Amino acid sequence: LGYSEVQLVQTMIDGVNKLYEEDLELQKQSQTVDSFPKILSEHSLVAKHVTKEKWDKLSGHKTATAGFTLAKAIACAVEFDNQHCGIYAGDWDSYKDFAEVFDPIIQEYHGISADAKHTSDMDVSKLVGNVDPSAPVKSTRIRVGRNIDGFGLSAGITQQQRLDVEKLFKSASQKFSGELAGDYY
């Protein structure tokens, strides 16, 4: 009440533009940060495992696939004070290039040793029973995400890589048949 539709839309436009200006400024700052960052999430795994020594060694590196940096990987722990882990990989290279940081964080978070190996077992016949139907559970979900080799992960994928993934999907989906067949828009 008290504002016209035009006033409300203009306020929204001005707010979006202001946020965009602030974001561009923050991006410039994060690209020029050479000194060890202040990690606001003081109790995060990033605060524990990103030491000045590791920062000095790795902060100037960019990954080959997405040009991802350690600063980008730990940005959420630097900018927010409520992160538990506080790190995101921008691409597969992040895990290798920044292994001195990622490995101990992954090991501590998952409670695994440095030599732990994943064993894949997709044999559903080994499952026993089901959720008790009287349990007050409306739904459950197990999410498994994979990426296409050679493209950035969600935190580091470039605009061009997104377009290339869409092109790949468009090409693949044209081969769908039966109930999966259809048009991609």
Layout: helices, strands, pairs:
Blueprint: H1 5-32, H2 45-49, H3 52-58, H4 70-73, H5 75-79, H6 92-97, H7 99-110, H8 159-173
Explain the overall architecture.
This protein has 185 residues and is mainly α. Helices cover 44% and strands 0% of the residues. The protein has eight helices and no strands. The protein has helices spanning 5-32, 45-49, 52-58, 70-73, 75-79, 92-97, 99-110, 159-173. The chain is extended, with a radius of gyration of 22 Å. The mean pLDDT is 89.
Which characteristics define this entry?
185 residues, mainly alpha, 0% strand, extended, 8 helices
Question: How do you describe this structure in short?
Answer:
By secondary structure, this protein is an all-alpha fold.
On the 0-100 scale, what is the average pLDDT?
A: 89
What proportion of the residues is helical, as a percent range? 40-55%
Q: What is the string of helix and strand elements?
A: HHHHHHHH
Largest sheet: none
- Whole-number radius of gyration? 22 Å
